[in-house]
Amino acid sequence: xxxxxxxxxxxxxxxxxxxxxxxxxxxxxxxxxxxxxxxxxxxxxxxxxxxxxxxxxxxxxxxxxxxxxxxxxxxxxxxxxxxxxxxxxxxxxxxxxxxxxxxxxxxxxxxxxxxxxxxxxxxxxxxxxxxxxxxxxxxxxxxxxxxxxxxxxxxxxxxxxxxxxxxxxxxxxxxxxxxxxxxxxxxxxxxxxxxxxxxxxxxxxxxxxxxxxxxxxxxxxxxxxxxxxxxxxxxxxxxxxxxxxxxxxxxxxxxxxxxxxxxxxxxxxxxxxxxxxxxxxxxxxxxxxxxx
Length: 292
Fold this sequence. Notes:
By secondary structure, this protein is mainly alpha-helical.
């Protein structure tokens, strides 16, 4: 059996266990609200994936969690609403599945097997030392993103009746645009790396000409789209903090981490930073328009 195939089957088994035990936990929380029930199930599933990561000494077991669990959450909320099939639920599930399949496929394509661990986790392990297991691995790698993603999934938990307004179509459009943005930027980066396999070049073509991280920009657009689905039924409330928190996580945590790594090996990246906005292509375009 090929190394990668064996790894994928192991990860599949881990997620089957995690999702199964998460659903079993629902039977012990029947007196709680639906939102709290699925949150606890999410915590249980995260612990199971954490256990597999520790068992195999590879925290990248968590990497697919980001894209695998949201559709499960969406289907569960659809189920407790008696599988109401209408325009809002069809649009929502189409958007979520499109996003999930793209991101999961991208992970499968780039993941080499059980021996492969994300470079960020390796850095964290070195920098945190004895504090890595609790602070870095359990807290930073597993539970922090679980909380953020669950929070951003909460707009999916609305009662999607047939009484809706036009904002669901804007939400759906943003979700699709966001995923397409990610697909295009990933393809452009893949082609660039084929042409320049040394890993020392800096891509400045296509979407990368206007944003230093167009793939993350697309991800952020998607989650703002999900928020608009919930907004269509609940109006403005605390859930607006969900896409804001996702945007802040990328801007203040994920992106600086990546850029610091790039600068260690490619100092010419500083010139690219001066010319292209860290995230929003609109700002780069506006600056170029003002500067002529």
